[in-house]
Amino acid sequence: MKNKLPLLIISGLILINLLSNSCKKDNVNNIETILSSGAWQLSSVRITYSVGDTTKLDTALNTLCDTTQVFTFNADKTCTYTNFNCKHQPTGSGHWAITANKLFLNSDIVCQDTTAAGKSRPFTNAKIDNAGQYSLVLLTGDIQNYTITTKRKVVRYGFVRQKAASK
Q1: pTM of this prediction exceeds 0.70
Q2: Are residues 29 and 152 in contact, defined by beta-carbon separation less than 8 angstroms?
Q3: Cα separation of 93 and 123, whole Å?
Q4: Whole-number CA gyration radius for the chain
Q5: For residues 7-18, b (16+ Cβ closer than 10 Å) or e, as one string?
Q6: Considering only CA atoms, which of 31, 40, 37, 34 is closest in space to residue 161?
Q7: CA–CA distance, 36 with 162 (Å, rounded to integer)
Q8: pLDDT tens track of the chain, all 167 residues?
Q9: What are phi and psi for residue 155, nearest 5 degrees?
């Protein structure tokens, strides 16, 4: 009986320590860290037109682009986009945020495009389809509140992390 009491006390302390450490929550936002830890180079743009779950047209864009398009997120919540829509142009700048549910990117960045107005906010409400260490996929367009008969246009931007410049 004497030998079992210290063993029981030690086991109880270990159990209490495990339970208390497993309940700690860190307030780290991994998506924000991933986005702001480097520049993202555009690798593909696809536009999909669909009705319900049926794809009507799927088009790859940007296949003959001779400019490098780079989306950069800074830790201070500012962002830049270079050469949007494959046009040599001044770098667009703005601010960015991730929604509370970590599913959407909101950015007020203004870029020149091919519309009649000449300017757009392409990432005002972009769904984060994938955010990894080396790849980022954003969906824009008709991505919310649609029915089986709704005609939709979804633009899929695929980015890869740019290698850091050598020092």
Answers
A1: yes
A2: no
A3: 12
A4: 23
A5: eeeeeeeeeeee
A6: 40
A7: 12
A8: 566 766 677 777 777 776 666 555 555 568 999 999 889 999 999 999 998 888 888 888 877 888 899 999 999 999 999 998 888 877 889 999 999 999 999 999 988 876 656 788 899 999 999 998 899 999 999 888 778 888 899 999 999 999 765 54
A9: -105, 125
- Contact between 160 and 48 under an 8 Å Cβ cutoff? The reply is no
Between CA 107 and CA 132 the distance in angstroms is: 19
Residue 141: what residue type? G
Q: Which two tokens stand for residue 116?
A: 């009649």
Query: What whole-number distance in Å separates Cα of residue 116 and Cα of residue 124?
Result: 19
Size of the chain, expressed as the number of residues it contains? 167
